[in-house]
Predict the structure.
Amino acid sequence: MAVLLGPARPVVDPAPRRARAIPRAAGLALLGAAMLACGGDACDRAAPEPPPLPLEVELAGCGAVRAKGVCELPEDGTIRVWVRAPAQARAALALDGTPVAQGGAPVQGGVLTLVHAPDGARELEVTAEGAGARASFRARLIPSTAAPALKQAEALRRQGKLDEAAALLGALSSSPDPATRALATGKLARVDLARGRVEDAIPRFEEAIRSHRAEGRISDEFLDRFALSYALLYNGRRFTEAREALDALGPLEASHPEGRAMKQYYAALVSFETGDLRSALRQLDASAEGAERLGMRAHLRHVLQQRADVLQSLGRAGEARALLRELEASTPPDAPPCERASLLNDLGWNALHVAEAGGPIEDGRGALEQALALYGGPCPKPASKANALTNLALTALRARDAAGARARLDEARRAVPSPDARLALHWLDIEGRIALGRGDGAEALRIYERLARLAELSALAHGRYRAALGRGEALEALGRLDEADGAYAAAESTRGELGLLAPLGEGRGTFLGRFEESARLRVDLLLRRDPARALGAARRSRARALAALRWSHRLASLSAAERARWEGALAAYRRAREAFDAEGRQDWQLAADELERATAARQHRSQAIRAMLDEALAVLGRAEPEAADDGALPALGEGELMLVYHRVRDGWAGFAVTRAGVVAARRLAATSAAAPDGERPAATPAGELTAATPAGELTAATPAGELSAALLTPFRESIAAARRLRFVPSGALEQVDFHALPWSGAPLVAHAPVTYGMDLPGRSERAAPGAGGGALVVADPRGDLPAARREGEIVAAALAGQGLRVERLSGGAATHPSLRDALERPSLEVFHYAGHGAFAGRDGWGSSLRLAAGGELAVGDVLALQRAPARVVLSGCDTARTAPTAGDAGLGLGLAQAFLLAGAGSIIAAARPVDDAVAERMMAALYGGAGFATTDAGARLREAALAVMRAAPSSDWASFRALVP
């Protein structure tokens, strides 16, 4: 019988309100189990039988896996066995009853052992004994049954000798042995793919798969389904069918752990190509975990390199770089040349992205030169060689080496005389950058206008973005500022599409995206002319980032029917677009007048393809951001000051917004020469801007005094007059504790209440009603925070004293189903949580509130709520924490931000780990102080923070923030 491990027991952590990392429960179907037996009267008198001993065993390295636990041995007879048994149990391995020496490597709580099976070995047995129980697992071993000619045919195919391979396989496909016929048919399908005959390959794969299933050849079905899914995905853009080919393997996964790990990799490719990058990351992590557990080293390298590609597409270039460096160190010298070339090219490309995102400038030239040598020698791939040369041209541009960039560009053109549309567009972009670098705005404008026409012909949003951006820079260089503003606005509009399209192949994987540069340049341009319009452009840039957050969640949470609609509409668009691209493959060579005629002739089809894309995006409920771009001011309260920060050409710009108008300052930077309240020039309205000499980058790690001087002092008069402050930071500044920055000898919050706004379009802080409304208090769900349970009693009493109807969920009653049901009640207006908060996932999407019975309320659960309470207090570690974001308008997403997106009016939460005693003291002050009567989250938190500062000056009172829409 099969035994499944139960969930790991939670770790008791009585001090911080942070959930410790708990090892993931295996959740794997066990391949063996324990049975105890007794008979006669002894059974009546025996003590209760102990529970079955949990034993997990996974095999890898078989030449083939067949039904009923049969492993065909590989040529060298070596298989890998991973065993996990309870700590108190003794595990042992044996071949045909002869013990196998142990001493394998510890992996994921188990041990991975290499077992060398001699000729004639018939059975592998794994046993575990302990606590009066015994468990065992057996696998039958047989010699390989594959025909030697199959191996010969495969070698011919890999050498590119397709005709010889096909002749040999054709003879084998009429073999009397059904297994040989099926294997030969699957390999013939691969020959068809190599010849570009996709429609011939697909039915061959399907025939082979049916035969494998009938013959019980499990691993062969896995391999042919992987190849079929790959062909459907990349050669036919048949996304739903590619996914279905993998889903059919579900019932076989428990019998083939190695195949299960590989399946997650191919599923991630489907998710990646359909834009669901978050699912792709989860699937790649699962594949990497299985590969590590089973010693699948080559597969693990492929998985991690693909993960770096996904991270790069998400704008997380620094994380991708670290992963690629690890891969470089672990790749053996004898790895296949094309594998090494691909990794080296990715390292060089990543270095460009890291520098573009503001990270340390790292010259990737060496890695690219090595990749180039491999592509020109042992891995002859002209298109990949052209990619490496293009990346070298971009590297030269970053080093301000225009001559070097031109030389590499010319080499790339010689390597691929007839490039596809994407490559041709990137070459034009490089030419345009060279022209801009030498100050020739007129030539740059000519190049980018040609690029714009080619991009329209190719229906490539990425090309349209680069063309509009380059036109804006060229027009600005020529002094045609109104036209430059229009071009930047067009680039920003296209950027909305790129939020989804970049991961779908619109330029990902090889070249610099520069998707946020349009906002940076437009805000910078408008700052010199109209600060109110510059603010509108900055807010629209932020709204697009918020929309991307919504789309990312929406895509990852589509129902099966919605996903089928999305993939079908997307597939139709991609097939039409690729056919259109193929038709225009030589368009880049056309003269200007010929290009105009071609554009006019194909304009209708281009518009039809764009309409197909709109139909696909409609499945996600895609809509343009609502933030105004015409100078309209946000809704603010009387005496409220909103401070917005956004990247510009050189550093940061700041906007001080009141009901009366906008005051702006640009080129804000850290400068150790300025005192916190030094005499720096104040910002001025109506386009007259202050300019501090940039002396350093601004981050949360910058000393508080320098941050205050850079970010607050330019708006000294506005801040002094304000009765309430709302900060709207982005990018690196999201991590700054503005409320704790020094101001007039005290923290800023001592001057006025401080909130952090997401600037959600059309949203403002809403107050909860008084008597009659509902309140929910959740306290100490895991039963390990006594202070949280006391806090819950204090909060419940305070809310009841306000006339609210209070429901309490404490300890074991605070389960996921009970909390979810309570949160969606229409009467609920106040929600207070006191317990463990967990920040998880590399980007915070795995963050959660820990609940009873091992449950949790995750970010995705919050975003899926039909409604959210007006007032929320999350008294737990990391409940307002977000991951550091890359880019100008990057926005982090944590639990508090998710509640705001779901409709909450205000949140009080902690931006980092918080001590249990500090949390209890803050909440007692929050609910028992003079400010409790108001529903203004900033005012309430201010009173609590001042009270705690007076009582415990050294405590981390600043960890709590008030957040509003």
